[in-house]
Specification:
With 351 residues, the chain is α+β, with helices and mostly antiparallel strands. Helix content is 23%, strand content 40%. Keywords: Membrane, Transmembrane, Transmembrane helix.
Length: 351
């Protein structure tokens, strides 16, 4: 009985030692696996890689909610940006191309616990490199590393909408006057800042029946402020509408049965006696051309030709003749687009 009890006790001790050793092996394996995960899947470099992948896939919901990306009010103020700066571009369907061929070049662990992750990538046709500083935050389940950007990779794009306040970027159409009031709304050229995800390529343009802007491609890098001009110019339809207004105006001038039609660019002075009503007609209408000026689209002084037909009597010898004479003239004007998309023209004195 005593021997059996001793053997039983010895087996229990051996079992405990065995289980303890196994537990230590399992714990070691777990810690090794945890360390591997924290170095790879949950490492600083992979955190940056996941952000860039989200941008490349146009997954703005993931990209903008990545820790350290969103800017709070204090950060916006510190950057000298208006409190009401637009975040409209921080959505899917806006970027043209995201970063491609992404490769982590270096992951440097800094003494303060932050990491500096350098990444190379292709943005459209350019090969670029950016360094992202990230820092640890509360770990997931108390075990797995989590990170956030020390400085948000979001940048600012200053968009100048020249000669038309509206522009298109990706699938989005924006109005640069959205946050403006008073006289600022009247400016012929408008500029407004927009928050934009980076790195990415954006295409800016605009097109409607009256104006169009040739698409402009802009590649932006993290934390580097960029600017772009969307240069709207009159369409053929715009020019045609102005031409119609000019022609109608001149036709109205030609209906006036006087030598000097009021508020019109042509007329004649005759020393002889006029016996009948003068009859005007337009021989050549000025051909409308429009270019952007400081405050409106402008047509430079442009030649036209009117014709007068009137019966006159010489004061010298009383002879009666029919005067037929072409009278050259010039027309200059400015044209603007009203809020209802109609066109207002303002005739200019040509001297």
């Amino acid at each position: 009985m005593t021997g059996a009890g001793v053997r039983s006790g010895r087996l229990s001790v051996l079992a405990i030692v065995g289980w303890a050793g196994l537990a230590m092996l399992l714990a070691g394996a777990f810690l090794a696996a945890l360390g591997g995960l924290n170095q790879t899947t949950y490492g600083a470099a992979n955190f940056v890689q996941r952000y860039l992948d989200a941008v490349a896939e146009d997954d703005m919901a993931t990209a903008t909610t990545t820790p350290g990306v969103a800017l709070d009010d204090a950060e916006i103020e510190a950057l000298g940006l208006p409190a009401d700066i637009s975040s409209a571009m921080l959505r899917s369907g806006v970027i043209e191309v995201g970063p491609e061929d992404v490769q982590v070049v270096e992951d440097v662990a800094n003494p303060d616990g932050t990491h500096s992750v350098s990444v190379s990538y292709r943005l459209d046709t350019a090969i670029l490199q950016s360094t992202f500083d990230v820092r640890p935050i509360d770990p997931l389940y108390g075990l797995l590393n989590r990170w956030e950007f020390v400085t948000s990779p979001i940048t600012v794009v200053d968009v100048t909408a020249a000669h038309n306040p509206v522009f298109t970027v990706g699938s989005l159409t924006l109005d640069t006057r959205a946050t403006k009031t008073g006289d600022d709304l009247k400016a012929f050229t408008q500029t407004a800042p927009y928050l934009a995800i980076a790195p990415a390529v954006y295409e800016f343009s605009y097109s409607d029946i009256l104006v169009e802007a040739i698409p402009t491609t802009l590649g932006i890098e993290p934390q580097k402020r960029a600017e772009v001009t969307v240069d709207a110019q009159p369409t053929a339809d715009f020019v045609k509408r102005v031409q119609t207004q000019v022609d109608d105006y001149l036709d109205q001038c030609a209906t006036q049965l006087v030598l000097q039609p009021a508020s019109c660019p042509f007329g004649i002075e005759i020393d002889d006696r006029v016996l009948g009503d003068p009859a005007w007609s337009i021989v050549t209408y000025p051909v409308v051309t429009l270019t952007a000026g400081e405050t409106a689209f402008e047509m430079p002084p442009t030649d036209g030709l009117a014709h007068i037909s009137v019966e006159v009597q010489s004061l010298f010898d009383g002879e009666i003749t029919q005067l037929e004479e072409d009278r050259p003239f010039k027309v200059a004007l400015t044209a603007t687009i009203r809020p209802d998309d109609s066109i207002a023209i303002q005739l200019q004195q040509t001297g």
